[in-house]
Amino acid sequence: MRLAVTRPSEDAQKLTQGLVAQGHEVIAAPLMTIQFLNAPELPQREWQAVLITSANALKALANHSELGPLKSIPCCCVGPASARLAADMGFSDIRVAGGGLVELQALVRRQLRPESGPLLYLSGEQISGNLGGDLAISGFETVHVVLYRAVPETQLWQVLGQDIEQGRLDGVLLYSPRTARIWQALMDRHGLSSKALHVLHYCLSANVAAALPEHVLVKIAEYPEDAAMLALTGQETQR
User: Fewer Cβ close by (within 10 Å): the C or N end of the chain?
Assistant: First the structure.
């Protein structure tokens, strides 16, 4: 199969290797560029825990001067990918949710206490949901600090557009609701929505699939990791 990988280049290497090993032809078509902000200030507080909803937040934190003191407090990660990176960075108390904001909120409510101190929420400029607001209902104080921005592509990659136009693209891998929305916006802008109806949309989660129009072809990973996405694409090579 001919598949488009839409993740930022620095995040897509292992995924691309896995797809090639399955015998697929891969088109690199990142739909966002990650830009780390220049050392945003972290308030000096007695933090109870750090909340992480993306691995890019940890990457942006890696060279921050305030990283050291944070390593000894609980690091609550939205899923296993960010948890592995937190471990590589030296966090000693890592707690892993089930891959979504609802699961992360449940983990916080289960394992932390409002009276034990504020929570430091590190993220990108664009966020989904209202993590701090939802936790405030349970009495938690959450301080949100933006460490990076994900800049969307406004033009479709030429090779990708030609492949869709000529019916050569078999599938696209989408990793976030925002990426799914950017993808569909590009299809609409370039008049390719009808031509893209034959393209199979491999989605990391149900939330990603929900950001797409109802009529597109969708497959949803069993859990939010590269391995589950590769399990989906591997099904095609077994037919």
Answer: C
- Give pTM, 2 decimals: 0.80
Q: Provide CB contacts within 8 A for 187, sequence distance 6+.
A: 164, 193, 196
8 A C-beta contact, residue 107 and residue 97: yes
Q: Which CATH number fits domain 34-150: 3.40.50.10090, 3.30.70.2190, 2.60.120.330, 3.40.50.880?
A: 3.40.50.10090
Amino acid letter, residue 238: Q
Read off the amino acid at residue 27: I
Q: Give, as one character, the DSSP assignment of residue 197.
A: G
* Residues in CB range of 88: below 8 A, 6 or more apart: none
pLDDT beyond 70 at 239: no
| Residue entry with tokens 């891998």 | 173
Whether 64 contacts 41, CB under 8 Å: no
**In the chain, what are the domain boundaries?**
34-150, 167-239
202-218 pLDDT tens trace: 999 898 999 999 999 99
Could you tell me if 131 and 101 are in contact, meaning their C-beta atoms sit under 8 angstroms apart?
A: yes
CA 72 to chain centre: 25
Write out the two tokens for 43.
Answer: 């308030």
Amino acid at 50: V
- pLDDT of 5-49, one tens digit each? 999 887 888 899 999 999 999 999 999 999 999 878 999 999 999
The helix or strand, by DSSP H or E, that contains position 203, with its residue range, turns out to be strand 200-203
How does residue 238 score in pLDDT terms, banded at 50, 70 and 90? Answer: low
